[in-house]
Amino acid sequence: MQTSTFAELGLSAKVQAAIQAAGYTEPTPIQVQAIPVAVTGRDVLGIAQTGTGKTAGFVLPMLARLEAGRARARMPRSLILAPTRELAAQVAQSFEKYGVNHRLTLALLIGGVSFDDQLRKLDRGVDVLIATPGRLLDHFGRGKILLTGVEILVIDEADRMLDMGFIPDIERICKLLPPRRQTLFFSATMPPEIQRLVDSFLKDPVRIEVTRPASVVGTITQLFRYCASTEDWEKREVLRQLIRSENVKNAIIFCNRKRDVAILLKSLQKHGFNAGALHGDMDQFNRTETLEAFREGRITLLAASDVAARGLDIPDVSHIFNFDVPWQSDDYVHRIGRTGRAGKEGRSLTLVTPDDIKQLNDIEKMLGAPVTWIGEPPSAEDLASGMRRRGRSRRGGARPDGRHEGRGGRPMRNGARHRPERKPRSSGGQPEHAAPTQARPLEDRPRQDRAERRPQRSERPQRSTDQQPRQAKQPQASKPPRQPWEPREPRRQPDRDDGRPTPVGLGDHVPAFLRKTTRTAQ
To answer: How distant is the alpha carbon of residue 160 from its chain centre?
Structure first.
């Protein structure tokens, strides 16, 4: 049944008043189908693209169901699992916006935040617990939280959980929850691993699919720019040309690697662009500050890794630039889904090198149509040779000034790949920069070496009861330490019965039961 207002979805009066105060009048397709089912308490399997309003699709019915009841200490009433800190914080903001008329308590368990602050909220009792899997299991392992009182479980961006390796954690968490609960499961795609998870932990779910899996919103204009060179410095130059030619209000620039994000940020700032960075190695404070600055318009360009590709609701992003073609076509969909949200127009531009032809073909198969090129498209020969390549090369190449640029933009001489120089070894077998070798502890010496330094019981001097206390040993002149350039003196063992010295070799390190014994003639 197609509805046009939130009043027809079965929500409470408090929730409807909060929706009106937020300025929303018409629900999205995923909200139209998911909210009436979720309000009744049934399990929901939602397959929806990011940017379709699915966050409100589970937040609104949860608020309506949690109006009755009271939270107890360390026993949350509902649990929402998100793959990244940014997505978890975004869900928390949605609860604060739509729950203004409720007196529900909320806790956010994510990494990079003090444990003590989170524990204080858990001790007071929370109605809504939003967490990333790792931090939730940390609290559970410390005995600071009980999950036996969870009435509603929400798993958001399940396919992203799969990509980040969280599926074992999700399975462990689901086994800790009570069997009688409501589960709301949302994912943009349904690979076999996700389907297995659905079959294991959802009971007779209502399947809701508002768009074809891995489809692109029609409000996004997708353009591709071919770059014949595989060198990063040339790609950065082409990227700057595209940014200057487009009417960019704000944009997210995606890279495949975190180290490339840092290099691109320095390049953009060097050429006068107002840019920031977002990747997984940043601490939580800097990640939050960067996102807030981008949302408020204090940062125009945001260089990011795929940590920002899914689930983030950043309004009014005018452009998406793919500095690197993503390795998976699904990631391409999630990246460009940051623009063209809520029916607004958006543009995405992707740089393609000869090493990206295979990934380009995967994107064309997923889109079901050939891509649109800016400038000269790749020739048939380029496409054929690109298919024979084995992934993108990261080696450096010649710059216009004759220098070469290596990994991470590091200049190299004569075009050779940078390798640290090896230090020459001294005649003693030690590197010249090594510290002087110290005497080995007694426990590390061979058994025979230890035995000769331990006197027999009969040889030990006897000490009488009236003997004076032992005097401290006088320090002896120690042998000067061996200099690094001096050869090491060979270690010797006691002479044999025939007077000849015992050679030192590999046999000293062979266990006794493996040594070959020799019999001497009598």
So the answer is: 11
Taking the CA atoms of residue 145, residue 148, residue 149 and residue 150 in that order, the dihedral angle to the nearest 10 degrees is 90
Helices H / strands E in the chain, number of each = 16, 17
CA dihedral 472, 473, 477, 482 (to 10 degrees): -100
Contact call for residues 50 and 188 (beta carbons, < 8 A): yes
Give the chain's mean pLDDT. 78
The DSSP result for 427-457, as a single string, is: TTSSBTTSPPPPPPPGGGS-HHHHHHTS--G
d(CA 375, CA 383): 16
Is 6-209's fold the same as 220-398's? Answer: yes
User: Encoding tokens for residue 263?
Assistant: 């290099």
CATH number of the structural domain 6-209: 3.40.50.300
Size of the chain, expressed as the number of residues it contains: 522
| Measured distance CA(285)–CA(388) in Å, rounded | 44
**33 by DSSP, 3-state: which?**
helix
Residue 407 in tokens: 């990994």
What 3-state class would DSSP assign to 276? Answer: strand
Is 220-398 a CATH 3.20.20.70 domain?
no
Q: Residue 244 has which token pair?
A: 């200057």
| 47 and 95 Cβ atoms separated by less than 8 Å | no
Q: Residue 47 is which amino acid? A: I
Radius of gyration of the CA atoms of the chain, in A: 33
Residue 156's nearest CA partner among 303, 245, 58 is: 58
d(CA 61, CA 238): 47
* Cβ–Cβ < 8 Å for 79, 152: yes
Condensed to tens digits (0 to 9), the pLDDT of residues 455-468 reads 555 555 555 544 55
**Main-chain dihedrals φ then ψ at residue 19, nearest 5 degrees:** -65, -45
**Does the pLDDT value for residue 442 go beyond 70?**
no
- Here the tokens at position 35 are 């909210």
3-class DSSP assignment, residue 266: helix
* Cβ count within 10 A of residue 510: 11
Domain boundaries, the chain: 6-209, 220-398
> pLDDT tens-digit profile of 228-264?
888 889 999 999 999 999 989 999 999 998 889 999 9
Both tokens of 134, joined, read 């790792």
